[in-house]
Design brief:
This protein has 406 residues and is α/β, with parallel strands linked by helices. The protein has 2 domains: 218 residues, TIM Barrel (Alpha-Beta Barrel), CATH 3.20.20; 122 residues, no CATH class. 45% of the residues lie in helices and 9% in strands. The protein contains 17 helices and 8 strands. Helix 13 crosses helix 16. The protein starts with 64 loop residues before the first strand and ends with a helix.
């Protein structure tokens, strides 16, 4: 990925649409010195049966897909999508803008994994922050449907959706499968990979998976294997007989994950295998360092640098909470609005993400006043925030592009 440096030299290549974003020279400020994060290089082992006869090899290439999970934020997902990475997100963290991005990602042939958010719901309940350990699966299904609605059947094989469960409660989880059976089978019939998480329980995991098959009336589902050793033992995993597996829980690509993979592949050679690994979290120091470099390079170019006014204004008006309460008040004042009730209406509309643009268009249909005065007078700091967010996508792309090239 390439971006223009302060000297005009190229640092790394910006793929796809991002190549057009960097058409202006950044400010000629002296570069700030930063200490790069230490990078620890580890060899990824290959379990190939050299010591013991294995029925199936285990290596990174053995996985149908390894999703970069933790990418629910718009610019994280955008940076990964630009590189064609398989993206992993959580349903209850998706806003409309991210959903549109994910639909575009799928149309371009990208792979997508959406977690139900059951882990977050259980954790909130366990900490006393929620009344129930159960996620709102009606909302989860609604989000799933928004992402896949009207997409070509040919794209569905690239979609993985996690089905309802309750952590540490296999019986309740089975009841949820029975309750939502029709919806789950609808996804399966569309060719989607429906991931049913397996849990440790009073009976072997293999028997639980067989019960899932009896409830659904089909074995055309993917068994979700927890990546944490404490959640399910290797011996328990080895009792499962199935042909589709996904390792859940944001594991890291390495020997522990391969051991869990081998535990089921030895009994199910040739099975389809995928995983979601939080490589964003693992590589966060590198992403943060690159992001800081880009912010330094393009400091002071909010309105004249890599992004034009149209992109910045769309971010400020269409995204929830891009502006502070004070900035919304200043924007209202720029239009001569001082009535407190009206100002509070603007603040509420921006916080909900549903109406600031509509409110502006009522008094400034062409947004002329916003373009020529109110924008720069009121929203300078907000523009810096919007620029930083866009540069985050470039930072993510830079880091993962370098990883792919290594």
């Amino acid at each position: 990925m390439q971006v223009l440096s302060q000297t005009g030299a190229t640092a790394s290549a910006v793929p796809g649409a991002q190549a057009e974003m960097f058409t202006a020279q950044p400010a000629e400020d002296p570069p700030k010195r930063r200490t790069p994060p230490k990078t620890v290089t580890r060899d990824v082992p290959v379990v190939d049966g050299s010591m013991f006869p294995l029925n199936d090899d285990v290596s990174p290439d053995r996985f149908w897909a390894v999703f970069v999970s933790g990418a629910s934020a718009y610019y994280d997902a955008k940076g990964l999508s630009e590189l064609g990475q398989a993206i992993g997100v959580v349903a209850d963290k998706l806003v409309s803008r991210v959903i549109l991005l994910l639909r575009t990602h799928l149309r371009r042939g990208g792979k997508l994994f959406i977690d139900s958010g059951a882990y977050g719901a259980f954790t909130a309940w366990d900490k006393g922050k929620a009344a129930s350990p159960l996620a709102d699966f009606a909302e989860v299904f609604a989000t799933y449907d928004q992402v896949i609605d009207d997409l070509s059947p040919a794209l569905m094989d690239n979609v993985m959706l996690v089905m309802p469960d309750v952590l540490r409660n296999p019986e309740w989880s089975l009841q949820l499968l029975q309750e939502h059976r029709k919806k789950i089978l609808g996804y399966i019939d569309r060719g989607i990979h429906a991931v049913v998480p397996a849990q440790r329980g009073p009976v072997p995991a293999g028997e639980t998976v067989n019960r899932v098959a009896r409830i659904l009336g089909t074995r055309r589902f993917t068994v979700g294997i927890p990546s944490a050793a404490a959640a399910m033992s290797l011996a328990d995993i080895a009792t499962i007989r199935h042909d589709r597996f996904h390792i859940l829980g944001r594991g890291s690509m390495g020997l522990p994950l391969f051991q869990r993979t081998y535990a089921f592949l030895e009994q199910n050679p040739g099975a389809l295998v995928s995983a979601d690994a939080n490589r964003l979290r693992t590589n966060m120091p590198e992403v943060s360092y690159r992001h800081a470099e880009l912010r330094d390079e393009f400091d002071g170019t909010e309105w004249s640098g890599p992004f034009d006014d149209t992109e910045i204004i769309c971010d400020l008006l269409d995204q929830r909470n891009m502006l502070t309460k004070r900035q919304v008040e200043m924007l209202a004042q720029a239009y001569g609005i001082t009535d407190r009730a009206t100002v509070l209406q603007w603040i509420k509309a921006h916080k909900s993400g549903n109406g600031l643009r509509e409110l502006l268009e009522e008094i400034d249909p062409e947004l002329d006043w916003l373009w020529h005065y109110a924008l720069r007078a009121s929203l300078g700091e907000a523009a810096k925030k919007a620029l930083s967010a866009r540069l985050r996508a470039v930072a993510v792309s830079d880091v993962f592009d370098a990883m792919e090239a290594a």
